[in-house]
Every structure is written in structure tokens, then in C-alpha cells.
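WARN  no MSA supplied for this record, continuing single-sequence
INFO  ligand: magnesium ion
INFO  echoing inputs
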Amino acid sequence: MQERFTGCLLGLALGDAIGAKREGGWAARTLWLFLGLTRPGVLRWTDDTQMALGLVRSLAEHGEVEPDALARRWAEQATWSRGYGRGALATLKQIRRGVPWQEASVSVFEDGSYGNGAAMRVAPLGLFISDPEMRAEAARATARITHAHPLGVEGAVLMAEAAHLAGSRGVSTSRLRGVCRERPFLDRLARVDELLESEPTPRQIRRELGNGIRAQESATSAVYAYLRFREQPFPVLMDFVLELGGDTDTIGAMAGALYGAEHGEGALPADQLVSLEAADELRQAALALAEVSGTFRASPGGEG
Ligand code: F2R
Ligand code: MG
Ligand code: MG
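INFO  complex generated
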């Protein structure tokens, strides 16, 4: 079980860091290189991992989703240099200034964010909570802090469920559809099934599911990539993610988390783990969560 927790968080971080080197167009990549944030030889992770790490630590400390504490933790660690989404960073800065998260999360986009930020960070929670309804409600509670839009929230519910099922080698699109309510997710998950029957090109996946920052695009593409390549070595999965293009760090983080949750840390490439930023810190945080797993308490904060 410990292996799955470390595999999930380290897989998420590796996918994030590998994808981050290829995220965006040449101008954005050159800028990040110029700023010294994409250093050769170092697998430096971004907001996806930073927020997942914050969530893992908060869960381990409180034994539940404690939205106020989690919001404060995320707000304190948020910095532009990790490549946060524009809305998410503005929301977190407000929380840092003392604005209640319930207010901040609908201040940038009045209907809340439908970005993939709530989905990209939530996988370890899926391993932590075994009760399906509590898992979905806890995922919603984490999402609402920054992503109040129903599609942003649904991305988190989907990825928490996918990670849980990956941990027991039981992911299927029909089970994933069972936790979804929103048409853009339901339609894409139905399509994932059909796409798995052949070997479509990355271009076709981009066209059918999408590779963008919207939760329903990157989360379903990540699920597709994981399901297609889960029995192959991790780099094969990552190569496909890079070929998909678009939001590669986040698709990589989500697909990597699922792969790591299923196979454990031992299946991740040792040479890449050596180069991964703060790998030991991530490992220790995941182990601390594994230590308290099974102790999850339903949180009154679930009602955002
Ligand atoms: N921000 C990035 N990448 C930029 C460059 C990073 C750099 N290369 C690096 O190496 O670090 N990536 C990160 O952002 C995504 C997660 O974003 P999140 O947390 O969902 O942010 P936000 O701002 O809430 O939503 C993202 C954008 O979606 C549009 N949007 C969302 N909701 C909307 C609404 N209701 N109405 C209109 N537009 C909405 C906006 O354009 C948001 O800015 C991940 O990819 C992560 O890696
Ligand atoms: Mg990122
Ligand atoms: Mg991204």
C-alpha cells in the first residue's frame, strides 16, 4: 500500500516535470528557460505537484479534508514561478490576504473556474479514502476552494475515483462514468471506450477529447493515455503525453499519478526519480499519508 501512495505522488510529479519541459509554444518555453526555471538535467515540477503535495500534507495532518486549513496551506505556498493558472493564482493571493475561500473562488470567474487545477492535484486523495461517496464528496470539497465551476469540480471527482480504482487495478470507463454528472465528461468517457478499441494517433485524441486546460479535456485524455499504456513502461506513457501536446505537464501529472497508483514506485524509472526535484520530500509526504490511511473522517467542511 505504501508503494502505491509513493508511486502515485512521485508518478504525478514525474509526469508534471517531464510534461512541463514541453508545455506551451516555443515562446513560452524559451521564456521559462531564460528565467532559469527549466534547468537542463533537473526534473523541476510545477503547480500540479506543489498543490498535490500541499493536499497530501494537509490530509496526513488532519486525517480529513479541512477546507480552511487546506486553503491557507495552498495560499501560502502559491508562487508564480511554479506556473499557476492565472485565475488560480489570483484566487490564492486573495485567500492569503484573508478573503474567505468561498468568496475568493468565485471572484475571478463568477461561475468559478473550469480549469483542470482541481483535477491535477487530487489523485492521492483517491487512494486515501475507500468509501466511494465520501471520496467523491471529499474531492468536491478540495475542488471548491479554487474551482467552484461544476466542470472544475467534476474533474476532481473523476481523478480521485480513477486513482482509487487504479490502486486496485480496477479502472474502467463505465465505473468512471458512474461518478460523473456533467455531459462533457460523460460524452468523452464514452468515447474513450471506443478509442481504446483501435490505436488512434495523438492528433485524433487531441481532436476528440482535447488537450487543453479545461478539466474535461485534459482529465479524459489522461485517463485515455493511462488506460492505453498502463501495461507498458512509464516512458512509453510519457512519450504519448508529450505527443498529445497542449497542457502536457498536467496530462502527464494525471496519467503519471494513475500509473504510479497502480504499479507503485518500483515501476517508475529510477534514473528519472534521481533527477526529480525534492523526490525524497515527496516520498516522505506520501508515506505519512499512507501511515494514516484508513483513518479518514467525513468532514463537516465538505459542504462548501
Ligand atoms: N498555467 C499553466 N501554464 C502556464 C505556463 C507554465 C510554465 N510553462 C511552467 O513551466 O511553469 N499551467 C497550470 O495551469 C493549469 C491549471 O490551471 P487552474 O488551476 O485550473 O487555473 P485557472 O486560472 O483557474 O483556470 C485556467 C484557465 O482556464 C480559463 N478559465 C477557467 N475557468 C474559466 C471561466 N469560468 N470562464 C472563463 N475562462 C475560464 C482561464 O483562461 C484560466 O486562466 C494547469 O495546466 C497547470 O499546469
Ligand atoms: Mg503546471
Ligand atoms: Mg499544466
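The radius of gyration is 17 Å.
INFO  checksum written, moving to next record
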